[in-house]
Amino acid sequence: MIVHTDSGDNVFYTEMIDSITFLDMNVQWTDDNSLNCCIEEFYMDNFNLKYGRNCYIGAFESGNCSPRLFIYNQNDQLIAQLKEDASNWPSDYYAYESFSSIIDVNTRETIGFIKLRNNVTYSNSGFKAFLNDIFISDIHNNPQIGNILKGDNQIVLLGDSKFGQYWSNFLPDMLMGLARCRVYNCGFGGCRMAWRSIKGTDPYDLFSFSSICDAIVNKNFVPQTQMMPLSDYRYQTENLKSIDFNKRTTIIVNYGTNDITGGSALKVLDSIPEIMEDLDRTNFVDAIVYGVRKVKNKYPNVNFVFLSPDFRVYEGKGIDEFVNEHGFGIWDYYEAMKNTVHLLDCIFVDSYYLDFRTSQNIMDYTVDGVHNNGPGFSKYAQFLYYTWLFNCKN
Predict the structure, then answer these.
(1) Could you give the CA distance from residue 309 to residue 312 in angstroms, rounded to a whole number?
(2) 248-254 and 303-307 beta bridge pairing
(3) How far apart are CA 93 and CA 81, in angstroms?
(4) N or C: which end of the chain has fewer CB within 10 A?
(5) Rounded Cα–Cα distance for residues 76 and 38 (Å)
(6) What's the Cα-to-Cα distance from 136 to each of 25, 27, 42, 226, rounded to whole Å?
């Protein structure tokens, strides 16, 4: 491998020579003849037991696009990759000391983490580097990742596509770097706080807030798993299955925008109903009450943080100009959520403009007036970090 170092901190790998084929990571991280100088930590638990030996990195590149790493077994079959695909690149990814998830390409289970060194650009063709599976399976060789995995704090991002699908989302990686705790991304695109159907039989209802809370408490994700042909929610569902909610957990909830545009029923409560069976889960407010009480009854130490509906573009206009079939607009849902969350003694956060997105600059931070782009995710990660730090860390 020919290594070129510029006058700054950047290291550019431009050519792979045939004799360098083994990723032999060591504690010193000083070997410029391998990928060691661009990988700071790399941990995959019991990797060789799950996938066998002689696995290798078949391609790795970063820089102007997202980090891309693909892992193959000895039969040249793709078995794992970084969560990110080639998508809009957040400039603050390294500054936030992000930790990237490695996922099994078949099950979408998170099987490891990697921390890349700052300001590294790597590109090549025909690249192959075999993994030192003994090294990467030892958590003691990866102290930063180890501290995160063994720590008491964890954050669960539960909501719709505002939290993003895994293939185009850097949010949990950057938030993990800032908060130094495990962050689980559980954003189910297209789903609502409330049910769409009276008995919760619409496929999307299985991924609504109240249904996910049922699954968490019952530890039963079979209905969600059976409905996967609807959309590929395997990554999010596998994340939820793996969470120990007995740990110090903050669930940050960001459902609501699909309730507004889809016309979920709405009401205002004076007090919290005592009988769970009386709650109408097709109602935005009752769905909040049901989910929080369900989880809190089993895991009383879980913190809920509800983010208010935020500004977005809908049908070519600002969401603040939209009124749904019931005559409700965003501020009706905003106030109903705020009132309900306070009655439940949970945390409500005004995220209407997210401290950075406005009607004037919305397209600077989103790809479509709704979903964050790279700069948007950078800002959003910082917003969520301070929300958690000031409200829930201790």
Answers:
(1) 9
(2) parallel
(3) 18
(4) C
(5) 24
(6) 8, 11, 6, 34
Per-residue pLDDT of the chain (394 residues; tens, 9 = 90+): 233 333 333 333 333 333 334 454 433 333 444 455 667 888 998 888 889 888 888 766 655 556 677 889 989 899 998 876 545 567 788 889 999 889 898 888 889 998 887 655 555 555 677 788 888 888 998 999 999 999 999 999 999 998 876 555 688 999 999 999 999 999 998 999 999 999 998 999 999 999 999 999 999 999 888 876 555 788 888 889 999 999 999 999 999 999 999 999 999 888 988 888 889 999 999 999 999 999 999 999 999 999 999 999 999 999 999 999 999 999 999 999 999 999 999 999 999 988 788 888 999 998 899 988 888 888 999 999 999 999 987 6
Calculate ∠ Cα 372-308-297, nearest 5°: 115
Contact 318, 329 (CB under 8 A): no
Rg (CA), the chain: 22
Q: Is 151-391 a CATH 3.90.76.10 domain?
A: no
For the chain, the structural domain boundaries read: 2-147, 151-391
Concatenated DSSP letters of 8-65:
SS-EEEEE--TT--EE---TT---TTSGGGTEEEEEETTHHHHH-SS-EEEEEE-SSS
Which is it for the CA torsion 108, 384, 141, 245, positive or negative?
negative
Question: Cα 352 to chain center, whole Å?
Answer: 20
- The Cα 239–Cα 323 span in angstroms is 35
